Design the sequence.
């Protein structure tokens, strides 16, 4: 009889890594894979982000390609199980690596890859993505960082077969220094990328609190029937309200502390916002968000 380790090795060599993706049907033509409300680690292996796809008749549009090559390949298998079609277009909403490291797979299938202009730096970067360092080698296998080659610097429309897709370029720093959100008029749906988080706290690390709040007001003005974010499973018309509520409350509290002359260390102790304590990632995100907001807002007139 073979020792147990030999059996384990044989099984892992034969079976490619699987994320266990299951598409959630949201409306007529739209589906999403919803990831866990966690940071990337060796338990979720990158399945902590949302990837959505829209049936555009003869091909699929994919919004954000996920964290790895194998994730993207598995996602396409799941799409094909619903309706076998190629993926003709992939739009990456922003440059954070959990949203675009699946691009290599979709490029190998002939898809056009588009994303905002900060990807220009990613094209020239030799830095190892965080994902490669934090998830298992097996899950990351085959992943080659492949930034989108069609860079979008302003808002405009695109047709995927007969479906109109509006790509909205946020003209100021918001979640990052280059965010896109997608509006599809025929299904009154917005794909907001990481401008919208649910179930877990957002991260202000690379963003600007004023710009982010303004972008959420821009999203709200569309009065879409469905808004789906980059993290979190809520996708109704009010799905942006969690992030909007958190950021506006944070801004109010930080502004008040600054006006009262409260120093940053004391502000960090004071601004607890306890009603958000039950949200995932409060412990790792909230203090860092207070600090980031304080440093941005202390320069306001
Ligand atoms: Zn992000």
Sequence:
């Amino acid at each position: 009889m073979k020792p147990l380790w030999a059996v384990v090795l044989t099984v892992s060599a034969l079976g490619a890594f699987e994320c266990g993706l299951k598409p959630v049907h949201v409306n007529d033509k739209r589906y999403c894979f919803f990831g866990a409300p966690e940071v990337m680690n060796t338990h979720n292996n990158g399945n902590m982000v949302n990837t959505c796809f829209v049936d555009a008749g003869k091909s699929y549009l994919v919004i954000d390609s996920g964290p790895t090559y194998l994730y993207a390949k598995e996602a396409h298998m799941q799409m094909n199980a619903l309706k076998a079609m190629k993926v003709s277009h992939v739009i990456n909403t922003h440059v954070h690596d959990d949203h675009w490291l699946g691009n290599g797979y979709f490029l190998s299938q002939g898809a056009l890859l588009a994303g905002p202009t900060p990807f220009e730096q990613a094209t020239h970067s030799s830095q190892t993505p965080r994902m490669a360092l934090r998830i298992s080698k097996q899950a990351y296998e085959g992943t080659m960082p492949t930034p989108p080659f069609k860079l979008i610097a302003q808002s405009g429309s695109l047709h995927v077969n007969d479906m109109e897709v509006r790509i909205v370029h946020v003209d100021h720093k918001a979640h990052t220094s280059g965010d896109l959100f997608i509006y599809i008029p025929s299904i009154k749906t917005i794909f907001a990328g990481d401008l919208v988080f649910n179930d877990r706290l957002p991260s202000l690390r690379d963003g600007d609190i004023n710009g982010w709040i303004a972008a959420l007001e821009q999203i709200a003005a569309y009065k879409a029937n469905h808004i789906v974010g980059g993290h979190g499973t809520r996708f109704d018309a009010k799905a942006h309200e969690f992030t909007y509520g958190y950021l506006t409350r944070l801004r109010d509290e930080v502004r008040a502390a600054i006006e009262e002359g409260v120093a940053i260390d004391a502000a960090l102790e004071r601004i607890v916002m306890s009603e958000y304590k039950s949200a995932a990632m409060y412990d790792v995100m909230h203090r860092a968000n207070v600090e980031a907001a304080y440093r941005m807002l202390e320069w306001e007139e």
Q: What stands out?
A: Residues 25 and 298 are 44 Å apart (CA to CA). Residues 17-246 form a domain with the Metallo-beta-lactamase; Chain A fold (CATH 3.60.15.10).
